[in-house]
Write a structure and sequence with these properties.
It is built from 15 helices and eleven strands. The chain is α/β, with parallel strands linked by helices. The chain binds glutamine.
């Protein structure tokens, strides 16, 4: 039951074997039973049940229903929800009640999907372990001493634990893919601009991307098809008709060329993770895909470029939290300057403060050319690497993360070690490409491994199809952690 797909739940709903209210109640009960995971910042039972009742009434009235109608899910707490507190994992926004819904929220509500609450995350989506949340770390359902990954750790944990069949997430440098890999589920990061950022709290605007975490590629496709599409309220939203990816699943893989990027198996990647990744690739090969060794020469510079560009943009985006208009306001400031500095010192956690400092430094007049401008040039080289590679292959593959889920506290005292966890994910964001993390089995420590597939811009359908074909012949994505 807890691993049921969206399609299976929709079929049950259609024939009256269950109701939206029953599904919402079950999800809420499971969330309650698994409170120890700390995967939610808040649960909204009343709102969920009210939404579910509406869906049930619509169905009873004979209205045409969307495949997501009555399906319970959860939103990462980075998406603005009208009238419902949206914290972004920060003390700064502890009491922020948005006056409007994010586009992703609007679209899923319109389909009749039932949100049961808001999931835990690293503060302002900055982190790779969820330990930077002002509301405590979320826990990986595969091991209570393990991180679920970040920043969408609560979403990944909630799906992996079977609380909800899918959850929304955002990915600026890996925040959908890495937690999906650590928790043994599927995570889709769409092409930059494919899903509107309207109402999604900004971290690094040229990299931020909304997407979905679910058990399977099929479920990711159903949700993606509902949230993608042009939105004039996001100036970077792409005005280009989106094909329904759900219809594209089931294409044979014969002739598909998959570039296996040498750099993605480099230093830091555990042997076991590499072995599982190769084994998953062999499954694709057995279906007719052709594996081709490729090289992405600038990949080694991705972390350095990302950790200049992302903080630079963050330092600008987070300037709005001044304690004046909304967000946390210090109560003991005696001057305007003090109001700013105290509100920000009290409202932001240490990693967010570090990013603001790094970003401000990289953008300052004396250092702009040496850091920010140079990082932008490296970003171009990285994008060109992908363009070059996609001249001869259809997809690019490697392990999503260099290791399985690490221990709570293992890297939280060492920022550089934490950043290194993103070694295989950040380049995709720098280039604006779509990518997916698909379960690829389990390492010797019993923890899940994720295979990352990367596609050219707008080729989400190709990506989802390859992932789906893998999931047709393997059952790694259906494994459940021992409760
Ligand atoms: N771990 C990366 C960071 O801390 C990516 C986070 C994300 O994708 N939001 O910036």
């Amino acid at each position: 039951m807890s691993t049921a797909s969206i399609a299976a739940l929709a079929a049950d709903l259609a024939v009256g074997r269950t109701s939206a209210v029953q599904l919402a109640e079950q999800s809420l009960q499971r969330a309650d039973a698994q409170r120890a995971l700390n995967s939610f910042i808040r649960l909204d039972a009343d709102a969920a049940l009210a939404a579910a009742r509406t869906v049930d009434a619509d169905r009873a009235a004979g209205r045409e229903m969307h495949p997501l109608a009555g399906i319970p899910f959860a939103h990462k707490d980075i998406f603005c929800t009208k009238g419902i507190t949206t914290t972004c994992g920060s003390r700064m926004l502890q009491h922020f009640v948005p006056p409007y819904d994010a586009l992703v929220v609007e679209r899923l509500a319109r389909a009749g999907a039932v949100s049961i609450g808001k999931t835990n995350m690293d503060e302002f989506a900055m982190g790779s372990s969820n330990e930077n949340s002002a509301y405590g770390a979320a826990i990986n359902p595969w091991g209570s001493a393990r991180v679920p990954g970040g920043s969408s750790g609560g979403s990944a944990a909630a799906v992996a634990a079977g609380i909800v069949p899918f959850a929304t997430g955002t990915d600026t440098g890996g925040s959908i893919r890495q937690p999906a890999a650590f928790c043994g589920i599927t995570g889709l990061k769409p092409t930059y601009g494919r899903v509107s950022r309207y109402g999604m709290i900004a971290y690094a605007s040229s990299l931020d991307c909304a997407g979905v975490l679910a058990r399977s590629a099929t479920d990711c496709a159903t949700v993606f098809d509902q949230i993608t599409g042009f939105d004039p309220r996001d100036s970077t939203s792409v005005d280009r008709p989106a094909d329904r990816t759900a219809d594209a699943l089931g294409q044979p893989l014969a002739g598909l060329r998959i570039g296996v990027a040498r750099e993605y198996f480099g230093g830091g990647v555990h042997d076991d993770v590499a072995a599982r990744t190769h084994a998953a690739l062999r499954e694709l090969e057995m279906q007719g895909a052709q594996l081709v060794d490729i090289t992405l020469p600038s990949a080694h510079h991705a972390i350095a470029a990302y950790y200049v560009i992302a903080p630079a943009e963050a330092s600008s985006n987070l300037a709005r939290y001044d304690g004046v208009r909304y967000g946390h306001r210090s109560m003991d400031a005696r001057s305007l300057d003090e109001l700013y500095s105290r509100s920000r010192a009290e409202g932001f956690g240490s990693e967010v403060q570090r990013r603001i400092l790094v970003g401000t430094y990289a953008l300052s007049a004396g250092y702009y050319d040496a850091y920010y401008l140079r990082a932008q040039k490296v970003r171009r080289l990285i994008a060109n690497d992908f363009l070059g590679a996609f001249g001869s292959v259809d997809l690019i593959a490697g392990p999503t993360a260099p290791t399985t889920a690490f221990r709570l506290g293992e890297k939280s005292g060492d920022a550089l070690a934490m950043y290194a966890a993103d070694v295989n994910t950040v380049a995709v964001n720098l280039a604006g490409l779509p990518a997916i993390s698909v379960p690829a089995g389990f390492a010797a420590d019993g923890l899940p491994v994720g295979l990352q597939l990367i596609a050219p811009a707008f080729a989400e359908a190709r990506l989802l199809n390859a992932a789906h074909q893998l999931q047709r012949v393997t059952d790694w994505h259906l494994q459940e952690p021992a409760a």
